UniProtKB/TrEMBL annotation:
UspA domain boundaries: 4-148
SUPFAM superfamilies in UniProt: Adenine nucleotide alpha hydrolases-like
Pfam families named in the record: Usp (PF00582)
Organism: Actinokineospora bangkokensis
Family matches, as PANTHER family: STRESS RESPONSE PROTEIN NHAX (PTHR46268), UNIVERSAL STRESS PROTEIN UP12 (PTHR46268:SF6)
Recorded family membership: Belongs to the universal stress protein A family.
Coiled-coil segments: none
Lineage, opening ranks: Bacteria, Bacillati, Actinomycetota, Actinomycetes, Pseudonocardiales
Protein name: Universal stress protein
Amino acid sequence: MAAYQTVVVGTDGSDSSYLAVDRAAAIAGDTGAVLVIACAYQPRDERDLGRAQDQLGSDVAYQVVGFNPAEETVRTASERAHRAGAGKVETVVVDGDPVPALAKVVHDHNADLLVVGNRGLNTLAGRILGSVPAEAARKSTVDVLIVHTTG
């Protein structure tokens, strides 16, 4: 099997998602792959996020609200990725929900590996609503690495 050529990793700016970025960057660095760091964002106002967090807790943190926070998230992730060994790093922010956004990035960049953190897999909200890593793994057309980023 040939080494991965393009690795996509999703981040929401949380500490756990940055751990997934670190792992994806190490893989990309080891294989010489291009690393594409993606952040999905919702063009919602802060009141919507506040209401969702009141109902679901911090498990909705993967819903980045607004374009500017998403840009800052991928900029920070890119800096981390370079420190973790990635040579070629691209960033992209996508308007929409995380899983369809990641699928679009994988498709648009002809990626062969998607990396996500395990955040939400073992939470109440994740069991009720479905988690990003579980849904991404179910719907992906490429290999998926779910990095253990939470306890």
